[in-house]
Each structure stands twice: as structure tokens, then as C-alpha cells.
Amino acid sequence: MANSYIIDSPSPSNLTYLWGYGSLLGLVLVMQIITGVTLAMHYTPNIEMAFNSVEHIMRDVNNGWLIRYTHANVASFFFIFLYIHIGRGLYYGSYTRPRILLWSIGVIIFVLTMATGFLGYTLPWGQMSLWGATVITNLLSAIPWMGVNIVEFVWGGFSVDNATLNRFFSLHYLLPFILVGLVVLHLVALHHHGSNNPLGVSANGDRVPFHPYYTFKDIVGFLAFFLVLSIIVFYMPNLLGHSDNYIPANPLVTPTHIQPEWYFLPYYAILRSIPNKLLGVIAMFAAILILLAMPFLDESRIRGSQFRPFMKIIFWLFISNFVLLGWIGAKPVSDPYIIIGQLSSIFYFAWFAIVAMVGIIENTLYQMRQLWLGAK
């Protein structure tokens, strides 16, 4: 099996470094599980002791600061690689037939990774942990009739308290192992049809063994990642975190500006852009789950954007808009950020309709050209 997957697996000969982020994601998942299990040996899931247990890890446990900073920063790298991996799939049409199942499993992995990241953010039990958990779990109260009951069930009481922290810790520990199972299914689905290639055409006649061509290419990516990670962990460990999380959680003091971790900010901006709470929650979840519809929205005969100039333009507009949403999510709820967030949210959803329209127009032009050539 190992020979089939990582040695003699026939791979397109023109894969770029963008195809290496899948293996990087596997690496960081293993790193998160190892560092997470180690941290769990010293962490206490109790609201009276959680914050101090994290400080104990940082100050008293041998190399505890290194393990904790590695775990926290690799979580950010996990999402950086995940967004690049998804972006590469969108650009090169990796979601099209016959890889619909592969894409769908990947989207499920994305959703579970976001859930795992949110649960982990609450564990240090700082101010942002408490209030972020309070705000996000309160979104469930928007569900008609049973919302309040669901929120109290998640909390294990009438507020974010000790029972909530215990539940979040248990789930945060469990979900990575479920992710491992989904990653295995993802790899099985990938192995069935093989990787897509940058040209979007069949590469059956031009394939090379995975080893040594892509194993060494992946190792180069690993070394570059370790270099950047080392610089951040040793010199800028709090670059991607929030300073308020170094203040012990206090339910009587609300932070000036509550915001989730940076990797949730685009979806947080979509949530805030809609005044109605229920519609905001629906839009936030729809912004993620709409990725499942991509194989059915893009019906273009040409796979990927490599030979589609207009598709290239709207793809980079989508990326720019996504970054803008992330910036808006970190800003206060005031003008002009409100109106910019609303316009960006509208474009986010409109983009998927534009992709479908572009595919229809391209297919129509292709058929007209074929008819014209036939008549000629």
C-alpha cells in the first residue's frame, strides 16, 4: 500500500509546488496531534485552573513554551495551507468530474478543521476565549423554536462555564483523530483518479513515479515551512495571536472589540454584515457549504482557469474580496466598514453565480465555433 501511494504512484509530470500543500497539511496535522496530546498531559479543563495551567506549561514544564507556541502557530499555518489548497483547487478546477467525491471530502475536512480551531481557541481561557465562545455559541439561539434549548445544551448550563470548557476540551481532543480518518478517505479518493494537472488536460500519457520526483519536492516545502515556523516561534510567537487572551477570562468585563482568530474573520464579516441574526448565521454557514456546489455550478468544457482569461480575472477578484472580508472582520462595527462588508458579502455569493454564467457562455461560444467550422 505504501508503495502504491508514495513510491510508484503515477503522477502528472508537470505538477508545481502548489500541489505540495496537501502533503504540508498532512505534516501539520501530525504535528498538531503530537503537540496537542503533550499539552493535554499538563492542561486542566477547569475554569478556575485552565488559565494557570497554560501558564504552568509555559513556565514550569520542560520546553513547554516551545510545545505551546508550536501548537498555537501551526494552527495558523494549518489554515494558511488549507486556504491555499482550496484556492489552488478552485483555480485549476480540481472539483470537476471525476473528482467530485475528493472535493466533497475536502470541504468536510475544512468544516471540521474550523470547528476544531474554534474549540481550541477557548481552551486558554483568556478574555477572547471566553467572549469568543459566548458570541459564537449564542449564534445557535437564532434557530427558531429550539435555539435557546440548543445553546443551553451546548453550554451544559445557562452560561459558558465549567461544563462548557470540559465539553470543548473533549471535542477538541477527539476531532483531530476523526480528521485523520477523513484524510485517509481523501487520499483514497485522490489515488483512485490521480492528481489533476495545471493544464487541465489528461496526463495519462505523461506520468512519472511519485518517488523520487515529488517526495524530494515535498521535502523542499517541508524545510521552507520549518524555517518560517522556527522564525515565528522563536522570535515572534504572538504574531498571529490576540493580546487580550493573555488576560484571565472575566465574565464581568466585556472586551472593547470581540473578534475570533484571524482565520475566521472573513466568515465573521459575512455574519456581521446582515442585521438579522438568523439570516446572518445562515449566510455564514452557507459561505462555507456553498463550496460543495462548485462541481455542479461550473459546467465549462475547459477544466481550470489556465486557458480561460475571464475566469482568471474573476478568480483573483474573489481572492481579493476574501482578503478584504478578513480585514473588515477585524474592524469595529461602524461606518464605513459596515457598508464595505455588506458589498463584499454580496460579491462573495454572487461570484459563484458568475462562475456558472461564465461556464454557460464559454460552452455556447464553443458550440457556435464548432457549428461555424462545420459550415465552413
Automatic annotation (TrEMBL):
Residues involved in heme b b562 binding: 71, 172
Annotated residues for binding of heme b b566: 85, 186
GO CC field: mitochondrial inner membrane; respiratory chain complex III
Pfam name, any one: Cytochrome_B
Keywords from the UniProt entry: Electron transport, Heme, Iron, Membrane, Metal-binding, Mitochondrion, Mitochondrion inner membrane, Respiratory chain, Transmembrane, Transmembrane helix, Transport
Family to which the UniProt record says this protein belongs: Belongs to the cytochrome b family.
Protein name: Cytochrome b
Required cofactor names: heme b; heme
InterPro entries named in the record: Cyt_b/b6_C (IPR005798), Cyt_b/b6_C_sf (IPR036150), Cyt_b/b6_N (IPR005797), Cytb/b6-like_sf (IPR027387), Cytochrome_b (IPR030689), Cytochrome_b_C_euk/bac (IPR048260), Cytochrome_b_N_euk/bac (IPR048259), Di-haem_cyt_TM (IPR016174)
TM spans (from-to): 18-44, 65-86, 101-123, 130-151, 171-190, 219-236, 278-297, 309-330, 336-361
Boundaries of every Cytochrome b/b6 C-terminal region profile domain copy: 200-369
Domain Cytochrome b/b6 N-terminal region profile stretches: 1-199
Single Gene Ontology MF annotation: oxidoreductase activity
Highest taxon, organism lineage: Eukaryota
